[in-house]
Design goal:
The protein is about 40% helix and about 15% strand. It has 16 helices and 14 strands. α13 crosses α15 and α15 packs antiparallel against α16. The radius of gyration is 48 Å and the shape is elongated.
Amino acid sequence: MIPSHTREMVHALLDQGVALREVSRLLRLSRNTVRRIRRTPAPSRPSEAPACDADTLEALRAAFTRCAGNVVRVHEALGAEHHIEVPYSTLTRWVREAGLRAPRRRAGEYHFAPGEEMQHDTSPHRVRVAGTWRTLQCAALVLAFCRRLFIAYYPRFTRFEAKAFLADALAFHDGACTRCVIDNSSIIVAAGTGPDATIAPEMVAFARAYGFTFTAHALGHAARSARVERPFYYVERNFLAGRTFDDLDDLNTQALAWCVAVANRKPKRSLGRSPEAAYLLEKPELGPLPPCPPPVYECFERIVDVVGYASLDTNRYSVPEHLVGARVTVYKHPTEVRLFHRGQCVASHPRLLGEREARSTLPGHHTTPQRHVRRREACTEELALRGRDERLDRYLAALKSRSRGRGQRALRRLLELQRTYPAEPFLAALEQALHYGLFDLARLEQLILRRVAGDFFSLNTDGDTEHTP
């Protein structure tokens, strides 16, 4: 297909009286092509865009102010109120020519030497964890020279989480730059903004231990921390897209693997290499980590409640039962909670992250109150009676079923009767008692006495008493 500008040149040369053969030679076209172009009409030149007259300009200024600078709404308002129908591109040109919108300024560039600067920031992300959508804080630290990235997610982000994250990030980079640029949030900044910002004393002490200083960029000058701002979009569109997470630990494990395998190995056009390759140039310039990194923890005093728990961050952690009502010292670490009483560690729990009103109970801390369980094993008296006679076993089972518990008191009385009286009268009386359903042991003894009276006692029915030596 012949380009439009070539067609315009053919028509222009032919209109000037240049021979067809010469046009073919100059433009390196075949004569048939030149003839075909000559037979087609010359392309019409686009008409100049309409200018904005005084009345239209006045209506444009009023609509621009009323619509708060939204040119799309201005385009709709001019058509609805003043019946001014112009292409959107023409309207934007009128806005620029009228000076209603400031022209774009040329963006600058920041260049950093190896080991000179690192940048830290956070961004809220919607993440699906364990089948539920949650808003988590994504914290990032980027080395400004090589763009090496480290990210981690937290349910909330306070100074405690900031110190825990920076400790993990600096361990990942195996060193620290001399300056860390941050925004003006109150997490690290205690007062002021930009160059006048006052860094919180505990964060100053933390940075001093790792050999760097915090610097807040000017308010509204987010481009100053563009090295860490831009990766957040990449994290949302690449790392979070299509991934599922079982819990917060699984999320951070996958985030670390993504940083190592994807984000830091992908070549960047501005670097001409991957961040991991550029990191080899920056690593010798990083400040070394301290031999003994400062521990990250918070300390609280708590009173153990009546059910044997100490509360921390809306969650409760168990302590031994004998410490109910006692004062304990709770040390909160990034992944662990330790409880001390009088200088001795009485409990160590894994920290409950991303949960509310949850409990962590260690085995052996709380004895479960047990209701009295009725003992069902045979007592000594039952063992002494059982197995002697079939009638005795039947009476024994019936007597026990009508007694409370194991029936030990009734069995003890029955054993006394069995040991006191002869076997035949005793068993005969049991058989009679079973026949009539008699389980009153006092009346059972009367039945036994009636049977043994003539054998052991001399009964005088006439009233005479006879003594037998």
